[in-house]
Amino acid sequence: MVQMTMQVHKDLAKRIKPIRYWLPTILELSLVGFKTPATETASEIIEFLSTNPSSQMVLDHRVSKRAQERLRRLLALNEAGMLGEMEQLELDEIQQIEHIMIMLKTQIAEAQQQKK
Questions:
Q1: pLDDT of residue 33
Q2: What's the CA dihedral at 32, 44, 63, 89 to 10 degrees?
Q3: Is 52 left (phi over 0), alpha (psi -120 to 50) or beta?
Q4: Running DSSP on this structure, what letter comes out for residue 31?
Q5: Does residue 39 contact residue 63 with C-beta atoms inside 8 Å?
Q6: CA distances from 40 to 27, 29, 49, 103 (A)
Q7: How big is the chain by its Cα radius of gyration, in Å?
Q8: 64-77 burial code (b ≥16 CB/10 A, e <16)
Q9: What is the spatial distance between Cα 29 and Cα 39, in angstroms, rounded to a whole number?
Q10: pTM
Q11: Residues contacting 114, CB < 8 A, separation 6+
Q12: What pLDDT, on a 0 to 100 scale, did the predictor assign at position 35?
């Protein structure tokens, strides 16, 4: 892991300080470069993390019913071989989001195990 230092305006620093623990994940989600409706799912997660949730809340977090239903639909279309180019791109982006969240949850779970 690389440690970075950056200079920000004091007003921004006040807004960032409460969510500093989640900032790497928020930045990673923001940099994925979404081109599809997957941005709604990423925005949901960023909004959730910006509330400075507890570690347990993050471990328990699930995306909205809307996002779950969209993923189910894309997976069904993919299984049937009926996924269009844009839908494939959206599925890929959703999988990136899911991967980032799995990595975050794994880090939290490992940290909790080390504390025991």
A1: 83
A2: -30
A3: left
A4: T
A5: no
A6: 16, 11, 14, 20
A7: 16
A8: eeebeebbeebeee
A9: 9
A10: 0.82
A11: none
A12: 87
- Rounded average pLDDT per 10-residue block, the chain, 116 residues: 90 92 90 87 94 96 94 96 95 94 96 88
Give the pLDDT confidence score for residue 1 in this predicted structure: 76
The shares of helix, strand and coil residues in the chain, as percent rounded to the nearest 5, are 70, 0, 30
Q: Provide the phi-psi class of 33: left if phi over 0, else alpha when psi is between -120 and 50, else beta.
A: left
Could you give the C-alpha distances from 62 to 14, 68, 84, 97, 109, in angstroms and in order?
Answer: 28, 9, 26, 12, 16
Model pLDDT, residue 111? 92
DSSP state of 116: -
To the nearest 10 degrees (0 to 180), the angle between helices 23-30 and 38-49 is 160
Instruction: Give me the torsion for CA of 95, 97, 102, 105, rounded to 10°.
Output: -170
The pLDDT assigned to 116 comes to 77
